[in-house]
Amino acid sequence: MSVSRRGRPAGPTGPVISRALRLLDAFDADRRELTLSDLARRADLPLSTTHRLMQELCAWGAVERGTDGLYRIGLRLWELGSLAPRGPGLREAALPFLEDLSRVTRENVQLAVREGTEVVFVERIASSGSVPVLTRVGDRFALTVTGVGLVLLAHAPVEVQEEVLSEPIARYTAKTVTDPAQVRRMLADVRSNGFSISDRQVTMDALSVGAPIRDRQGEVVAAVSLVVRHGSTTSHALAPLVRTSAQAISRALSN
């Protein structure tokens, strides 16, 4: 048994790591700066434990403490995140084609991957005047409602599809499809047509069309989408543009 510097038996590694991860998970897009009390409350940890762990996380660089006393995510985590192959590596290969698609359409262009039962947005390019969207880089979202999400769910393993569709589907607008049987039909259409359509499912003013990005083995590893203002064009007019971009990115990943 290892002993701490204070002479007490050191706790097992697992719970300590779990508590540290809970503290990091307390941060999100709406809570980028937190007090020690906020962190303790959101992680459901004692204040003394929170203080000790945050000191260690600060020393390592996972978090930073400003002169105002607030804690923020540190650059060390960003440096580690940049090594993730499904994040920056994919983004670097895709970015020239995303920029081309943005220049041609002057609309929102999004790149995403699946993480478990959620979408994670890796890149987003928004042109001036394009319809506002709820998503940001690093955000997670439901697989069932976005253009990229429907693509990724359609090509996910059957057990993932069943897990997603066995749970209640969140409703964002009056147009959100919450019937699992109807979602299954939509997923079949995605696989058959090679693109997805999300019509006013997230916001009532947005239409999204997505397409799959494949690796050299032909497996779907990501998805790209265009998000435009509803009524400005049709999904079938957007589909060739999105599919062409997805195919170009797929070729770049295979090189």
From TrEMBL:
The keyword Disulfide bond does not apply. SMART domains: HTH_ICLR. It comes from the Bacteria. Signal peptide: none annotated. Keywords: DNA-binding, Transcription, Transcription regulation. InterPro entries: GAF-like_dom_sf (IPR029016), HTH_MetabolicPath_Reg (IPR050707), Tscrpt_reg_IclR_C (IPR014757), Tscrpt_reg_IclR_N (IPR005471), WH-like_DNA-bd_sf (IPR036388), WH_DNA-bd_sf (IPR036390). PANTHER family: HELIX-TURN-HELIX TRANSCRIPTIONAL REGULATOR, ICLR FAMILY (PTHR30136), HTH-TYPE TRANSCRIPTIONAL REPRESSOR ALLR (PTHR30136:SF24). This is IclR family transcriptional regulator. The lineage of its organism: Bacteria, Bacillati, Actinomycetota, Actinomycetes, Pseudonocardiales.
